[in-house]
Prior knowledge:
This protein is α/β, with parallel strands linked by helices. Helices cover 26% and strands 21% of the residues. The chain is globular and about 50 Å long.
Amino acid sequence: MSNPKIGIPIPHDYFEREPLWGNAGGYRAVAEIGAAVKRAGGDPVFLFPCTEATSVQALIFPGGADVDPRLYGQEPHPEVRDVDCELDAFQLSWARQALHIGLPILGICRGMQVLNVAGGGTLIQHIDNSEHHFPEEAKKDASRRSAPIHGLSLCSESRLAGMLSASKAKVNSLHHQAVDTISPLFRATGWSDDGLLECMERPGAWQIGVQFHPEDLRHSDPRFESLFRGLVAEACSSEALRLAS
Length: 245
């Protein structure tokens, strides 16, 4: 039996772009995600806006630039940056199709925000104390991306708490935005020390958004490999579904 195909929707010029945050390499994240998927037994497949209809058994929406606030009915805050309208349209289209058909999904950082907007939610465009969630040293030094920064409190009955066998953890943090009004499709299941939403899960489906970066965090806390193992395991029992961009 072949490994399940895990789609990762990214910009068409992803591998030619400059890193988002200096030598921390905002665009190195997909390599870490791909490695985590392979380690979990999946076959990572990069999906681009020009990709023809493709069969995948799960999706991972990675971190990246800010989602255009106009897509959730707001004007941009001065701190909103690096908006990519083509990527927004592409990822939101795939997210909505995947949400509709119940495809297993993991949304990471921006990816969690994409899922929330796709499901009708809104975002906090800029966190006032963003240094707590995106420290300067993590922007400048890629080796700091896996370092835990703040606490995570999970609902004890949440899927993630079950995978970690714990309702408390410490996580890394690389974001200046966050979920504001949560999509009605999802349930809030995890929060940071200062009350920002860090995890949301869809009842009845393996569809999870996390604000932290498990692809990096797994290096300092191997328990977070379980997110990728859980996704791949769920994909193995899912029908291969054909999505069009």
